[in-house]
Specification:
There is one protein chain. The chain is elongated, with a radius of gyration of 14 Å. The protein has about 80 residues and is mainly α.
Length: about 80
């Protein structure tokens, strides 16, 4: 997956997140959690791709980590 595709996915998710926040219902709450987790996964993937590229490695070696790993990462 190239960076442009990841950015495009992020843009779509941000738009969906905005819509879900404007119309908060019980049904939307569950979807919102999923969207937020997916956004975090996308940003994590981009950061890892950049790091690999910065150190002369193949950015395609980065893969999407599961939501549990990304959400519980200590910074």
């Amino acid at each position: 997956m190239v960076d442009e595709a990841i950015y495009s996915r992020i843009e779509g998710l941000v738009e969906e997140e905005k819509r879900l926040r404007e119309d908060e219902t019980p049904d939307n709450a569950e979807r919102l959690v999923h969207v937020e987790e997916t956004l975090d996964q996308c940003w994590d993937l981009l950061r890892r791709r950049r790091a690999l590229r910065e150190f002369g490695q193949d950015p395609n070696g980065a893969t999407v980590r599961d939501a549990d790993t990304v959400e519980r990462y200590l910074q």
